[in-house]
Amino acid sequence: MKLSDEQIAELIDESARQVCVTDQCCVQLVAIADLPSRFGDFQICGFVSPCDGKEHTAIIKGDIVGKRGVVTRVHSECLTGDVMGSKRCDCRDQLLESLKIIEKEGAGVVLYLRQEGRNIGLTEKIRAYALQDHGLDTIDANIHLGYQPDERDYRIAASILKNLQVRSIKLLTNNPDKIRQLTSAGVQIDERLPLVIPPSEYNRAYLETKAKKSGHLLGKYADTRDISRIESLRKRKKD
User: Fold this and answer.
1) Residue 21 has what pLDDT?
2) Which CATH number fits domain 62-115+152-238: 3.40.50.300, 3.40.50.11810, 1.10.8.420, 3.40.50.10990?
3) Between the N and C ends of the chain, which has fewer C-beta atoms within 10 Å?
4) pLDDT per residue as tens digits for the range 58-113
5) How far apart are CA 99 and CA 31, in angstroms?
6) Would you place residue 22 in the very low, low, confident or very high pLDDT band (cuts 50, 70, 90)?
7) Rounded CA gap, 191 and 13, in Å?
8) Beta strand 108-113 with 54-61: parallel, antiparallel or unpaired?
9) pLDDT tens figures, 122-159
10) What pLDDT score was predicted for residue 225?
């Protein structure tokens, strides 16, 4: 089952009529179309975001409107990984695995956010890569360029879920900051679903840095219901 023409028209109409307060980062749903893929039949939703001037998408499977416990992946754009198949990161593998999981589940959504390079942009990401080639890790390279370790804003994802009328989610992620930001933005996360990709010789150091410096939950035996641990992990990191 997929979203009907009537559901699509209603979602677009309601999105156009929404009123955003000043501290929100709202998106507007402009279109939904069929997207047959090698992983199954999906629908793709197009959003415009006045707060960052970018276009974002959601790839959905099944009727998720008004549903709880929707399997969800919030994925940030990675041209080098998603498109070029770079081995420096695990982004493409996480994206494809998410689509496979959602297809098997029969319903779910991948939010594809245009936040390349943890939202520093493609050119700056390449500059960061060059610094990594000369010994800096993925976190220190961003800091050296004058950025925070992670510049992403997940309020956009929260607004997309609101536009799709998703009531609660099961989040495919290893990133505790993503959980914290989404929760702060009003998203109800029922469960964390680990998305651990086995490391390769090219991305092992990158993944180890994310685990050690950003608290990513990459343990082989990560608990699938460990949302309550996120705050304690963050506090221990500060200490």
Assistant:
1) 67
2) 3.40.50.10990
3) C
4) 999 999 999 999 999 999 999 999 999 999 999 999 999 999 999 999 999 999 99
5) 21
6) low
7) 31
8) antiparallel
9) 999 999 999 999 999 999 999 999 999 999 999 999 99
10) 40
From CA 229, how far away is CA 169, in angstroms rounded? 18
Cβ 129 vs Cβ 88: under 8 Å: yes
pLDDT at 234 over 50: no
Cα gap 84→228, rounded to integer Å:
36
Q: Which of 49, 78, 73 is nearest to 61 (CA)?
A: 73
Q: Would you say 41 and 62 are in contact if contact means Cβ atoms under 8 Å apart? A: no
| d(C-alpha 81, C-alpha 168), whole Å | 29
Which amino acids are annotated catalytic?
150, 152
Nearest to 45 by CA among 94, 101, 2, 77: 2
Spell out the domain ranges in the chain: 62-115+152-238
For 81, half-sphere exposure in the C-beta direction (CA atoms, 13 angstrom radius) is 20
Written as six digits, the tokens of 24 are 């929100």
> CA–CA separation, 18 vs 159, rounded Å?
11
C-beta separation of 174 from 110 below 8 A? no
How many CB atoms are closer than 10 A to CB 210? 23
Kindly report the CA angle at 188 between 116 and 160, in degrees rounded to 5? 40
Q: For residues 20 and 11, what is the distance between their CA atoms, to the nearest angstrom? A: 16
Place of tokens 């010994």: 135
Q: Is the pLDDT of residue 227 over 60?
A: no
Give me the residues paired with residue 75 across strands: 112
